[in-house]
Design goal:
Blueprint: E1 9-10, E2 19-20, E3 24-25, E4 29-31, E5 35-36, H1 37-40, H2 45-50, H3 56-68, E6 75-81, H4 93-114, E7 120-122, H5 125-134, H6 137-149, E8 152-154, H7 169-187, E9 193-196, H8 205-212, E10 217-220, H9 225-234, E11 238-241, E12 253-257, H10 273-277, H11 302-317, E13 324-329, H12 338-357, E14 362-366, H13 369-379, E15 385-388, E16 394-395, E17 403-404, H14 413-442, H15 446-454, H16 456-469, H17 481-510, E18 524-525, E19 527-528, E20 537-538, E21 548-553, E22 560-568, E23 573-576, E24 582-583, E25 585-592, E26 598-612, E27 616-624, E28 635-639, E29 652-656, E30 662-665, E31 669-673, E32 680-685, E33 691-693, E34 695-702, E35 731-738, E36 742-751, E37 759-768, E38 779-786, E39 796-803, E40 819-824, E41 828-833, H18 839-842, E42 845-847, E43 850-854, E44 858-864, E45 868-871, E46 877-885, E47 904-914, H19 934-944, E48 948-952, E49 963-964, E50 975-984, E51 992-1002, E52 1031-1035, E53 1042-1047, E54 1060-1066
Parallel strand pairs: 6-13, 6-14, 7-8, 9-10, 10-12, 11-15, 28-29
Antiparallel strand pairs: 1-5, 2-3, 4-15, 11-12, 16-17, 18-48, 19-20, 21-27, 21-48, 22-26, 23-24, 23-27, 25-26, 27-49, 28-35, 30-31, 31-32, 32-33, 34-39, 35-36, 36-37, 37-38, 38-47, 39-46, 40-41, 40-43, 42-45, 43-44, 44-47, 45-46, 50-51, 51-54, 52-53, 52-54
Length: 1067
Amino acid sequence: MDPPIRNNKFVPGHEVRGRHGNGTDLPTLNFDVRFDAMKAFRTHGEWVEMREYWNDKMEKRYQKRRKDMWPKVPLKVIIMPHSHNDPGWLKTFEGYFNTATKNILNNAVDKMTKYKDMTFVWTEMAFLSLWYETVHDARKANFHQLVEEGRFEILTGGWVMTDEANVHIFAMVDQLIEGQQWLKNTFNVTPKSSWSVDPFGHGGTFPYVLQEAGVDGMVIMRIHYAWKEWFAREQQGDFLWHQPWDAKGKHDILCHNFPYDIYSIKGSCGPHAQVCLGFNFKNVVGEYNENGANIAINGANVKERAELILDQYGKTGSLVPHNVVLVPLGDDFTYKHDIEWDQQYSNYKILIDFINQGNYNAEISFGTLSDYFEEVRKRTTKFDTLSGDFFVYSDVFSEGRPAYWSGYYTTRPFMKQMSRQVENHLRSAEILYTYSLNKARQEADKEAIHFLEALFVHLTTARRHLALFQHHDAITGTSKQFVMHDYGLKLFEALNLCRKIQRNTLQFLTYSDKKERINGAHLGHDFERSSYKTNQVPVAIDMKRGDAFILVFNPLAQRTEEITTFYVETSAICIVDPKQVNVRYQMNPTWNSTSGFKLDTNFLEVTFKANLEPLSITKFQVKHCHVDIKRREKTQVFCNKCPNRDKPSSPLTLAGLPPGAIQLENSQMVLMFDEVTKLLTSVTNKLTGKKDELNLKFSAYPTAQFRSGAYLFKTDPHMSDYVEVFTQNDLKDVVVMSGPVYSEVTVVYESGENTQSPGSFIHTVRLYHTSDGIKSKGIYIENCFNFGDSNNHNDVDLFMRFETKIRNHEEDNTDENPVFYSDQNGFQMQKRSKVYQIGIEGNSFPITSLAYIEDSKSRLSILVDHAQAAASWMTGWLEVMVDRRSSFDDSRGMGEGVLDNRETIHRYWVTVEAQPPDEAPQPTPDTKLSLPSQLVTTLSRHLNYPAIHYLGYEAQAFRSAPISLLESGPLPCDIHLFNLRTLADPNVPTKPSSQALMILHRQGKDCELTTAQTCSEGSMDLTFKDLNTKEMRQTSLTGTQDRKEALNQLSELEIEPMTLTSVKVSF
């Protein structure tokens, strides 16, 4: 029985969803075109099994157009040779380069120099830059000529073809800057078209990023199969992708949805793949050829073969109004053999000449992507607009049944989190480096200049390692295990290089002795990390060496209340701030995982609140002190398995955990925990007295063999809906701690089939006692999860869920159709409505920063520190995936399961905010933009970009007063300093220039939520302390195109809400 279809009229700004009898759903998108959704989304179950949507109605339309339209508007076909080069997947980046990519590019130059009308396109700058460094001068010259002629077109300009689900906006933009800056400096080229054909679904953020970078046409490919059919049926394959917050359409970009499943020759010429397969003329001895019988074109068969392929081209042309067809000619790593070029060119040249010379009302040529968009714009001046995104991607071409690609949103969370850690450290390193280098130059400190300029190559390496990992087979976790290991090594090197730059620049800015300030030897790390495979281990301050200090760098351009932590092995200390005032602090026991997760009362965590100025470096001294036992603020510790009882001199008061429920409280709220499970059950707002249910649960979905893996998520239909990963029998300890800085509840579980290496789970819920700070307004949660041995917990997807009374359903729907909001790359929010027929796998969406549910009274938000999936399967529920393990390959090319899980620390903030009492929407209509509150936005910044800490022991040698990088005060609350990135010297790319790209992000916020103001208002008159700026000029996002006259001051900028604005600063 077909599921019901809402009889909506498709009008501007209204949501359209289609449901198909085979259990399919279309993503939420908006078109500025009227049509009847009831007529548009009929059942298409019959074509799904056939894997081709072409039907009799489309055939009749094509035949009529060919007869009536072609004489007036001839078919125009652009054949576009290409080679899809993944910078890591089944081989490492370097492995692919050495075995395929360098030959592809060498052949491209040589063969295109020979074949004067042949074209080629390229996307991955990571490969192109590596090739360019090694190629000889003659090929370089020929390559420059091909680029200048426009026959070799460089598309997008990103360092990689970025993923669009898991990548945070910072890394998405940074990899594009790295690639486009290299292109500009090397070839004086800025791409105008984008080719993004292999990410597993497409988001709404990347179109905006491309448009801001100067790109005016883009191609997408992997979208839900039902959308493919709809675009074809409605002839809407070329559209303007619109940002829902952009009232004027200023940021719209022309997008072409490639009408078929895949970019290979088999899937590119027309709707019938087996016909297209016969026009792949590659025939290399020793290589598998899917087309077993290559038929070379000759005088005897050219007419029959030309008309056969022209029929496919014509059918493709009938799917769009303008009759212009783009035909990609290539596949993964094609053209690595020089004979391929000859085989494809010679056969297609015969076909092209025959068709062009015949009476077919058709013109065919080799061309580039920009050629396609140019032809389309010649024939079409008006395009319908679309807003939204294309998640969840689903295919049917593998088995003729829907497969949902929502597993990779969570696959290998350890690597996803490591990417975000590198982002944070890279951003801080960029800001510190830009300021320090130009300060040294303006002070004419030759030794410091030489030292800092030499660090630029390290900064470039870190940028490129991070950029490489944004590749759609890297951060997704969908490469072979040894390839993921290689990515891990690169990320680890990037992290260490960033820390090296931070340490050296911090010492340069704070050390009193100019002769000693550039070597970084006087500062140490506050943690150790032996390899990328491990989490960082804290380093205790060695008080035997004498008094010590902590340098804290606030990387945000607003004042920040930072909870600062360090470790000691003595309790006889005091902390002194820059004003020589003793700082209140809290001492806590730590977990000793080597002894079976026992509390350690000798290795102590010290936590204190640090009020930091924007972009400032603050020194806190840690001194030996005699602590009055009677006046000491002790931390109360209640536990099931307490170590030996505390001594009078201990900073801890240890006691057994009383039976019953647990309560945590601060100035803002009261949390209640279940008396049995010790998990969160409710939150009460102390200011209003309102109590909200907030039942926290952990469970897992059992997944299907061979249909759930690195890419796909599919629950096992033969098992119950959920399986328990940890039970009450696995509960090893419960610890409650309360002190002057924070109070928390921690539960510890161990379980698994392998008792020698069991799985472990440490779950902590914390409230901060910072009465005037934002951190007291949220609930901090930390989960340390480890599957343990590879035999433990196979084929499950673990989730954390909040079950509440929030009625987050559509106003005209039942409780079975909840709505939630997920962020897109940390940039904007997208509404998600449940469709029951496609299961949890089709209703899980990617988040990188935030998800929330709301009704007329409350909004529940979950903030995350790395990419994962989120869902709201039932009204009042909001869940995020924690980790997943699959012992099976899911038949999408990787060839193995995912069993290399690592212990991963997941960090969250949770907020419950009251809606305005009078005008609370049910939930946000499509005509209104849904945005996070200022509180949530600020907490997310703190989660993504925490302060940077370093240790030292020569306190007198470092300046005591806080050092601010800003002469002016903080930026306004909604203006985020996205980055301050030193640009490479165009003539010597290994050297830094005197210019930096400053990127500002004006983040949107919901002003109606009743949360109190979370930061003081600042000013846009940003100036740097002790630094003179020669010029500031607004540019394109990536800094490759100047856009306006020079600015006298930054406050002249008109930064619209939600937008990114780049300014090139010359020092």
